Amino acid sequence: MSVPVAANARPSTAPALGPESAVAWPKRSVRTLANGMQVVLAEARTFPRISAQLFLRSGNAAVARTSPGLAGMAASVVRTGTKSRASRRIEEDLRRMGADLGTHAGADSSAIAISGLAEFSGGLVELAGDLARNASFPEAEFERERRQRIEELRVERTTPGFLANERFRRVIFGEHPYAVTAPTEDQVGAYRRDGLEEFYRRHYSPANALLIAVGDFSSDEMAGQIEKAFGDWKGPGPEAQAMADPPRYSGRRVYLVDLPGTVQTQVLVGNLGITRSNPDWHSTVLANSIFGGAFHSRLIINIREQKGYTYSPRSAATALRQQGYFSVHAAVRNEVVAATLTEIFYEMDRMRALPVTPEELESARNYLSGVFSLGVATQEGLLGQLSTVYLERLAEDYLEGYRERIRALTAEDALEAARRHFDSANARIVIVGDRAQIEAQAALFGQVTAFDASGKQI
Amino acid sequence: MEHTTLENGLRVVAAPDRSAPVATVGVYYQIGFRLEPRGRSGFAHLFEHMMFQGSENAGKMEHIRLINSSGGLLNGTTHYDVTNYFEAVPSNALDRVLWLEADRMRALKVDDENLRNQRDVVKEEVRVNVMNQPYGGFPWLDLPPVAFRNWPNAHNFYGDFADLDAATLADVRNFFHTYYSPNNAVLVMIGDFDAKEAFASAKRYFDDIPAHPLPPRTDVSEPSQTEERRGEVEEKLGPLPAIAIGYTMPPRGSREWHAAAILDRVLHGGRAGRVYHRLVLEKQIAVDADGGADLLDTNGPTQMVTRIFHRPEYTSEATVAAFDEVVSEVQREGIPADELDAVKVKFRADYYSMLEGGMGSYMPRFGLMHYLACFTLFDGDPGRVNTALAGFLAVTPEEAQAAARKYLLPQNRAVLLRRPPKAAASPKGGAQ
Fold first, then answer.
1. A445: closest CA of chain B, how far (Å)
2. What's the confidence (pLDDT) of residue A4?
3. ipTM of this model?
């Protein structure tokens, strides 16, 4: 085809941006069934697929004191049998509907996630209902899943990122259930089938359930299918549990996990933070994106693009339901552990001491606003955003108002957020690597406590 | 979806999609790690990093700043036969993206300091993804040297550190001049725009980039194989023994290739796959077993690869024997019609899923971009994105069984063992 074009039109500077378009929000409906189950439907009719997640508002935090990781094991076994379907039948039914299934538990929730071809939406909803209501916990499947989990744990204990995160959560959360990221082998060995069933009975109940479906369907038809699969589900929600407060701490401390002979050190620096209900949440997200949350952020320019210490450094503000944390991650060569920590604290302190420039502010607001638009442009992305809103019980217009709230933030907001929530002076420092090569470097930043990969203090 | 070719040979594809105010853009060059120079293993990937280090009108970090500050994300990846650079942005930034991509296609502007810096970054990338990760590089780096004999297919794609150290700025300039030419590339634009305007913008920014003559295509074909190949690599971190079994695929686009792709989904594809079912669920020899084949985005010798992590109390021989039983059942008895039908439904669902997202949930239509680019470069026809499924869905039980009998043979495979040095007692506890 031929295209008319003005001659000689190529500019030597980047074209200016046009005005930002409004997000095209899909048709969305929210209802609560008579049994208390909340249902959120969003029509996104781009590809002939649907994605649905049934959340139960209880996860591993609910069992951290009694049986760590049990919610995760219960979720794994849920997919292995119901009163009317054996394991193999479940997997074959899924494939027949072009579907993928994930069943898992995080700290605050458990989930049955199913996605597949829209032409099978009724069958997909029916199968999700069967798993949520009629799981039979076959003994042999449970024993196999248990052994498999133990093997996985053994691999995780050789993974630097896992070990760093495990130690960090222990340190910042103390007696709070969020301290536990994974069970021990012995704890997995102590799971009993009736313990899983009891968790399922108490927590997989309509009053504790939230179903979100996104995709190529008519909301009325989907609501009918959901009513059919879940309408006569009965059961009360679990009682709320009291959870211990995380510890207060002061001064920098170093926690070293020794992995002898490793060629790289995993560095994790951070502190307790905030949840989404905190009024500082958006300004903290903004400050984080300038500090280390985007490719074009200060930390990445510094320790990757200027110094070449690391491949993928990043920082994050993470919100769980009751608590949050701020964390900075970098995997660096062993010789530059002290140098990396120096730069991390330099950049944290700079965020706390001086306002960001007008260009940085504008860039970060654009970044967060634009990436938000990208994030809701796919079915899975939209489902993820909706799940945050309804699991955390945020305002109904949280997503619709997000870009405006970001646009209203100022340099002063970023400065305040960094001062309150990037706790440089009292940071917890976790390093995972070869003790002989890195301990002296780390000791420059605080008293060192060392552990082996099993978690034992050494 | 429309496409055109500029006078300099750059192919341009535009696929308007008004469902969200975003645009996804990819520039694909037909050069991957298969064709990097000998003595410079890892160079195609190192070079990809250099493409972010500055161009004529956008210095170091300017590409990244301009995309991030437009509300967009960007990255690049190196594959066997292509290297891609891509952005997802709010649609008001489309012109800016095109300007940036054109600027670096026209004139890369980098120095020794940039090269030193990115060499360090790439080494940390290799450490974090391979050397300091249990099963890092398994099996995508381990298997090709065992499976293949022709250097383009058989070398270390991430690069030996000595080769990375040996790379010079002259190598960078030479590689750029040889392969990063508009007539060796395709530009794909997807999203909320008018096709006519997008083509006009593409012409505006890319039209005056001069074409270079391309080198003759390197022969990447493999000599014929007559017996099973075996190799072993030590696993330094993880406690479980792992096995990769790779069968070389039939030629791309042939009926047998379509049949082998369906066969792959019979054997693999999660818990419903025959390998997982037999080895993990039924016999419980393995802790995990799955596999797959690179199909649409490769254009040279490639394999269907099974990955098995097995319990240390079983030998690798016993594990491979259990796998072989699964294969010989398919060869002997074929695949029941209902199973084949289910596999095809799943194949279709996975294809849509790939088109819609394909790179987590954060890059809309990434898979559509990827396939449009590969179909254009390898087949000269982006329209195949709409018709490619048919060839797979038409595979008959007879074709699938025949492909199993012809291709799933010891003399067409490589077996790679990745084993911990000893049955080491692994750390048992958990952090307290």
1. 22
2. 41
3. 0.94
